[in-house]
Amino acid sequence: MSGEADAQTTSETPDADSAQHQIVEEFRFFDDWADRYRYIIDLGRDLEQLPEAERTDARLIRGCQSRVWLAETAVDGRIRFQAATDAAIVAGLIALVLRVYDRRTPAEIQSTKPWFVEKIGLQDHLSPTRSNGLHAMLGKIQDIARSAG
Question: Which member of 16, 43, 64, 91 is catalytic?
């Protein structure tokens, strides 16, 4: 993790609800799902990757078709997430999810429902296995928050 990213203050980071509104607004710019998928893949390219050494079996999320690793660190009462995957579109999905949940308190995470998924139509445009993986990732984030809270 870069020191610069860790130094980010909460005033510079939108709250979880605002982050979801921003995601919805960004997706309104695209006319079709081919463009939206390209955008999701582009988001994944910018995902801060979990270092190779930390991609352990203990961090693998069960229920994902692709291999997805999720690690968390407590920083000043907030949970900092890092993830990695072996699939481009999944990396983009992770990037979207982390925009909502990264650097939040356990209470914020637990009280934040991922309504952006329905609002942008993701549930209707993901394969069943990718949808299951997205729900597994969201569930794991909630489990981490419950354990930390």
Answer: 64
